[in-house]
Write a structure and sequence with these properties.
230 residues, alpha+beta, 5-stranded mixed beta sheet
């Protein structure tokens, strides 16, 4: 496990609070997520209202509203992201993005909508590899975010994605035909507009991948304390 002194990125400012769940519901409806997910706007609003009440009122207490990945895959969510007016995108060599599924250790609520609590971008783990970060998160009783959950987070609170402080979503992995894990691990960061991204995509939110054994000073490991469907 790497020492924290290896992290070279400057300490980021505190993350802004998530909007209330009712406002998150309206954001999903405005973005058009509910229709393809097989949900009506009324269903999304009703869930958010009930969840706010279950979480003690006060807008949901910092919880994130997420649509089950079976209903809203990463390929459909990524283009909804915006940064400086530029839409999000998936890198060209990740056309199999929707095949990245939850790790066997992650149990998703059996519901089209659910909440994530205790979100953390994992900045302190910057310059760790995914292979190093996963057992550390497990030891802390934290669960790594799925790629779709990370996209939901940026969709609701774009400020969590910033230069030099982006994050990986290692709860989603692809299994090979032999049953082993593909070495790619998903991440969300900001495009520099180089290579196959294209100059027109500079500063756009980018869904890509990194090798499970590699370290990056500008990528933390997003995680949560729990998932539930109140």
């Amino acid at each position: 496990m790497p020492e924290t002194s290896r992290t070279t990125a400057a300490r980021p400012p505190a993350l802004p609070a998530l909007p209330p769940l009712s406002a998150q519901a309206e954001r999903l409806i405005e973005a058009g997520v509910h229709g393809p997910a097989g949900l009506s706007a009324a269903q999304v609003r009703a869930f958010a209202s009930a969840a706010e009440a279950a979480e003690g009122g006060e807008g949901g207490g910092g919880a994130l509203l997420a649509v089950h990945p079976d209903r809203a895959p990463a390929s459909a969510l990524a283009p909804l992201l915006r940064r400086d007016g530029r839409p999000g995108f998936v890198v060209t060599d990740m056309q199999d993005v929707d095949l990245f599924a939850p790790l066997d250790t992650i149990a998703l609520p059996d519901a089209p909508l659910y909440l994530l609590t205790g979100l953390d971008r994992g900045d302190r783990m910057a310059n760790w590899s995914p292979n190093e970060a996963l057992p550390a998160l497990s030891a802390e009783d934290r669960t790594p975010l799925l790629l779709t959950e990370g996209i939901h987070w940026v969709l609701q609170q774009p400020a969590v994605l910033e230069r030099n402080h982006c994050f990986m979503t290692i709860g989603s992995r692809l299994r090979t035909a032999r049953g082993t894990l593909d070495a790619r691990t998903p991440a969300i960061w900001i495009s520099n507009g180089t290579g196959r991204d294209g100059r027109e995509r500079r500063d756009a939110p980018k869904v890509g991948w990194c090798w499970a054994g590699n370290r990056h000073t500008w990528l933390g490991f997003a995680s949560a304390t729990a998932r539930r469907a109140p």
